[in-house]
Amino acid sequence: MLQLYKFGNSICTQKVFITLAEKEIGYDPIHVDLFKNEQYKPEYLKLNPKGVVPTLIHDGNVVVESTLICEYLDQVFPKPRLVPEDPLQQTRMRLWSKLVDEALFAASRELSFSAMFREKLKNMTEEQRQVRFKNIGDPDRRARYESCFELGVASPYVLQGIAAFEKAFKTMEKDLSHKGPWLLGETISLADINMMPFVARLAYLNLLDIWLEERPRSAAWWKRVETYPSFSSQIRANVSDAEMSEMRASGSRIYESVKGRRQEYLADFNIPGK
Question: Looking at the domain covering 2-76, what would its CATH class be?
Fold first, then answer.
């Protein structure tokens, strides 16, 4: 028996949604409302001490961290295989996983925060804001949120996020030039699944073309992803029309600022745009 503690518009949860759909695995979904701080309830923290989603329960065993959950599912339910058999290809796949976990997760969070959640915090009282910041717990993550709240796109953390996506799409364009149509070649893998929700978040914030306008292979990959059954059935199904509308409107408001900061980054480090 599988249970998945999830939040539909959580990028990390969406990786697991796609993996479960790709393998046609049934599960019992348990909604955790992040906006109501349900992730900090004592009973949930016993399962996931970080207070984040997703959390997978399989036959009573707890598995946390979305990247590890996806690899766990591939081992326990090996068909269709999403982790390559070849050790070199496995290494390439895990490089993409590391990129997502070590750079793009924070990058997406900061861009999303600057676009959407900053406005919500502005409408709170100072006391309400401090309660939200206090609940974060992790000092580094709290510092990032406070910086993004105070400075928006001007925050140095947002610039780090813009740079992280710049490096990711340069790598994607290079890797897709070798084989394609997927990141590791002819077959979809966890490398693609790990990236899908993060690229989707940029698209839903109406920011994606900032990075893909001059990258035809990456743009073609994204078009392929949009119509891929396990992606299209899961991501859109778990994001409401209201959430989608809010993301597009919020991202559009910061579009020019993000585009300008990317140009500053490229100019400062004398980096070609492609």
Answer: alpha beta
